[in-house]
Amino acid sequence: MRGLGTIVNVAAVVAGSIIGLLAGSRLPDRMRDTAYNGVGLVVLVLGLQQALASHNFAFPLAAILLGGLVGEAVNIELRLEHLGDGLRRLVERRHQTDGSESRFVEGFVSATLIFCVGPLTILGSISDGLGNGAQLLFIKSALDGSVSVVLASTLGIGVAVSAAPVLVIQGIMTLAASSLHALLTDRMIAETTSTGGILIVAIGFRLLEIARLRVGNFLPALVIAPLAVAIFAR
Predict the structure, then answer these.
(1) Given its phi and psi angles, is residue 173 left (phi above 0), alpha (psi -120 to 50 degrees) or beta?
(2) Is 215:202 a contact under the CB 8 Å cutoff?
(3) pLDDT (tens digit, 9 = 90+) per residue, 220-229?
């Protein structure tokens, strides 16, 4: 069922926020760190599994190399960070009111940026829309749920409201990928899945603090992979 991953993600954000509101700051940091490490391990294994979908690793290799060069030239990762900072400043500037409302806005904006601006959001929505399953969004749900507990314990109910942008943004991307599914051959999907799997491994490295890779700059590889198959595969 396409879209199930996004529904679970929204539920995880709301549930995590409720736990955070009720538990306050009583949850120890070591529990959060252990949860993050566990999710990082699962992300790493899932990325390796998806990377093996390739019929010819020349396609993911070319897509990663060319996509990385394009991403570095445009500096997608930095632009995503600037987008987040710009949205935060815009919203905060328009809500210079009393402390409680300011805290609500900070919680909403911070959570929305964390949950919606990132490679796992894009990769998960595309995978779900292409019919490859919602595993990535389920993993993202575990991450977002953990983060929402911590954020809600300090920033309040605004974190729970960020579930609405998650629903809209991931829903739109999933529907867009689903529409593209009819234009892609099985071979294109396989090589795109493999390329995405390699990027997921990179996300796992970041979560486990093994290497701080600029995953966002590799996102053009997801466009290059199916194009390369269309041009060169026989």
Answers:
(1) alpha
(2) yes
(3) 998 999 999 9
